[in-house]
Specification:
2 copies of one chain form a homodimer.
Chain A (H helix, E strand, L loop, with lengths): L18 H21 L14 H8 L10 H14 L8 E2 L8 H13 L10 H18 L5 E4 L3 H16 L3 H4 L7 E5 L6 H8 L7 E3 L10 H13 L3 E8 L11 H11 L2 E5 L24 E4 L13 E4 L5 H6 L32 H36 L3 E3 L7 E6 L9 H11 L3 E7 L2 E8 L7 H16 L2
Parallel strand pairs in A: 1-11, 3-4, 3-5, 5-6, 6-7
Antiparallel strand pairs in A: 2-8, 7-8, 9-10, 10-12, 11-12
Helix pairs in contact in A: 1-3, 4-12, 5-12, 6-8, 9-10, 12-14
The complex binds pyridoxal-5'-phosphate (PLP) (2 copies).
Chain lengths: ~475, ~475
């Protein structure tokens, strides 16, 4: 194979990339990807991670960028190396994050999106995806219980949460868009201490400030207490603040708790506040007839953030903001009417040009992968994934209860199971030690954290459609094995 | 091939996705993608777009999401349909946007990123990419002229611009993070009327307000006038505002103008303002020995936004924010210290966990595609692409000057060429008419817009490494043909 990147002798009036050489390279790369990431990377006889210290890894990868290019065979070797030393997030023993696993239809959709390389701002450059995004949003909104509304794919749930804040603020005080916050009274946001940190990040970014995020008490299960919410709202008002948004969580990050939406909706209605539901993690229960009751009352919210890249295995990133609004608030709040993109004298209906609803300009096509996966397995197939996850977590919980040394934090409400493993040779804080061994041996990955006054515990999340009970048994045995080595 | 998505009979204790069936599907999809998007999609004998009215297209695509899944052959047909009706942005006759073309090394990197499906927040889940991102940022910073500094890949240049605003604000008033804007004096941002609309969007989103974005006059070429900047800053101060940021542009969206950075740096120093350079479009000139003078003075800036997904053909999205700062401002400004991700008792150097520098939580791996492409052609190969683009725009300009009916707006400073085509049978505003015909025939795509008091003109951007002078001749002939049909 020649060197596609050879640079010395090109006639600059001619193309300097060769399609057939390029396509050959891509085919070779595709084979490596399938072999290394999809076959080996999901094989239980292979490691989840090849732990290397940063200095060693940097040396192995030879990351430096140089003046001249490299031959094709060397580039293919680089692809192998990147695959080799990367974490195998599709591996059945990867329990570390709220994403993982692999769905092949979604992956095909991702390859297609990448190759089509377009931008979701105008019907002109993305006719298929403008219509598709709208249909996928409609499908998700119907699950929330809204026959009408609006929405957008965002680069992550954190961004969706920020959008909700900005919309709520704009609805109450439209002048904020032009004048900023100075003319306004101090605004206040309400959320639980177990909500995702993006609520605070968003408040800081939007100029509201983290001090104006008021934390509402939670019950033993980590669920927001509506009575305390009511109390805190009154208190804030009495201190001269203007409450404008409650950010509830459906499926908290650590414990997987569902805030009681119906009761919170009552409080929001009473005080006329925007009700946002951060269902980035838990939203997928809406597919399941059996489990959707966890989000009862969600249809009373003003906005919902939901990440199909988590539980539905749609692939990073796939994240939507759904709105009940039918007054075009999203566009009014975010539009800048740039004439180079959003000309009003176009020959088609310019309402199709949704780009101005976003604070991004170029915006990735994140709908295709979800659409294709949904077409492939249907709503019933997605429901099944959710049901399976609950079956798995139940299995794991029951087994854990019967085993010496395991202590669960509480009965899981969702697919997060938080637990300690206390080795026979007790030491003070063993969780990080077990974790270090796990990583260095590469056998498995699971996350840990402290919470309030509770010392470090593991949080295992079991949602991948690729899991079997064998993997869960392995999980338990492996924790024991690593812990007992102390 | 069986139906991977068949859902009725699954044992939920077992995996419900089959790897070998899935991999077979992916291979079939890959073949279609290569054939339809990369072969046909770049063939000059094929159309750039298959124009359909929205209703017709929606019907053709059968977008609706249903309860049950579909068989594999039907899903493969759907992939074909999506490809067929999507815009061929890699086609040599796609001149419509500041992205387009295809680089096969980058594309291979994108497939690999998608398959590895990880998140750029911790060394734990992204060891390779944490190190790689840092190296790519270092390489880009060196081109700016900084041996030290910081930075981050962001989901687009608009986000990079917002980050710069937030950092500048935080540096001046760190209390904004906790207290919001209420305690602060009214802040003011300075930019030219030809800057990208994301500056205004960002100001609105951050609670600063679009009225506090003060527009500085430009010269005939669309470049900010430093004397007017100085004037406007003084004026704002006298009206009680606190100027804190100047957002210059290197390569404006429409005209491709470069603001005089060195002179602006003098003004910023004098008034102690944060100097941000929005080089989303123009930044790539830094690779070229011949053209990097356009950004002279950029090393005096505090931050630079640069989108390799535009001129360097790295693929959407690939967008960096570069910082001169060495005090960890990015992390201080954005961190939330979530204990479930950023535990401080980890067994490795937690400074590698860069996720808390971002306001996102999950963040896509956008560095690999650029790294692989850079490794493939070297800095010299990327420089060559920039030089080629300038050669192409010169060619097009000279030809246009010699042809009847073409009138250029001004001599291009960069690779944007703005022009009118005035058909012999003159009509009032023919640009949108030519555009409509072009789209409906699908022969070519180029954007248009008005500017100030100038009526609609075309903006052609020529940067794709896949272009030949034949394509440029075609462009001229086609504009003539479409225009003369009136
Ligand atoms: C409850 C919750 N909300 C929001 C997020 C943030 O989503 P993203 O990572 O897509 O920004 C997460 C991610 O872990 C989450 O668990
Ligand atoms: C000068 C300039 N800045 C910023 C942007 C926005 O970049 P993005 O689309 O990646 O948000 C653009 C895009 O056209 C641009 O031309």
């Amino acid at each position: 194979m020649g060197n596609v990147g050879q640079t010395d002798l090109h006639d600059l009036n001619e193309p300097i990339i060769n399609h057939s050489e390029g396509q050959l390279f891509l085919s070779e790369a595709f084979k490596i990807i399938v072999e290394e990431v999809l076959c080996k990377g999901t094989d239980v006889n292979e490691k989840v991670c090849q732990w290397k210290e940063p200095e060693e890894l940097a040396a192995l990868l030879d990351l430096e960028l140089r003046e001249t290019g490299e031959p094709q065979h060397q580039l293919l070797q680089r692809i192998k190396d990147v695959a080799k030393y990367s974490i195998k997030t599709s591996h059945p023993r990867f329990f570390n994050q709220q994403f993982g696993g692999v769905d092949y239809h979604s992956l095909a959709g991702r390859f297609l999106s990448e190759t089509l390389n377009t931008n979701l701002f105008t019907y002109e450059v993305a006719p298929v995806f403008i219509l598709m995004e709208s249909e996928v949003l409609r499908g998700l909104r119907l699950l929330v219980g809204w026959t009408h509304g609006d929405g957008l794919f965002c680069p992550g749930g954190s961004t969706s949460n920020m959008y909700a804040m900005n919309l709520a603020r704009y609805q109450l005080f439209p002048e904020v868009k032009s004048q900023g916050l100075w003319g306004l009274p101090r605004l206040a946001i309400f959320t639980s201490p177990e909500s995702h940190y993006s609520v605070k990040k968003g408040a800081a970014f939007l100029g509201i400030g983290t001090d104006n995020v008021i934390l509402v008490k939670v019950d033993d299960g980590g669920r927001m207490i509506p009575e305390d919410l009511d109390e805190k709202i009154k208190q804030a008002k009495s201190q001269g603040a203007v409450p404008f948004l409650v950010s509830c969580t459906s499926g908290t990050t650590v414990q997987g708790a569902f805030d009681p939406l119906d009761h919170i909706a009552d409080v929001c209605e009473k005080h006329k506040l925007w009700m946002h539901v951060d269902a980035a993690w838990g939203g997928s229960v809406l597919f399941s007839k059996q489990h959707r009751h966890l989000m009862k009352g969600v249809d009373r919210a003003n906005s919902v953030a939901w990440n199909p890249h988590k539980m539905l295995v749609a692939g990073l990133q796939c994240s939507v903001l759904l709105l009940r609004d039918t007054t075009n608030l999203l566009k009014q709040c975010h539009s800048a009417n740039a004439t180079y993109l959003f000309q009003q004298d176009k020959f088609y209906d310019v309402n199709l040009d949704v780009g101005d609803k976003s604070v991004q300009c170029s915006r990735k096509v994140d709908c295709l992968k979800l659409w294709l996966m949904w077409k492939a397995v249907g709503s019933s197939g997605l429901a099944e994934r959710v049901d399976k996850a609950f079956v798995n977590v139940r299995y794991l919980t029951e087994k854990m209860k019967k085993r010496e040394g395991f202590q669960i934090l509480r009965e899981p409400e969702f697919v997060n199971l938080c637990f300690w493993y206390i080795p026979p040779m007790n030491c003070l804080d063993h969780t990080p030690v077990i974790k270090e061994r796990m990583m260095k041996q590469g056998s498995m990955m699971v996350g840990y954290q402290p919470l309030g006054n509770k010392v470090n515990f593991f949080r295992v999340v079991v949602f991948s459609p690729l899991l079997s009970t064998k993997d869960l048994d392995f999980f338990l045995n492996e924790i024991e094995r690593l812990g007992n080595d102390m």
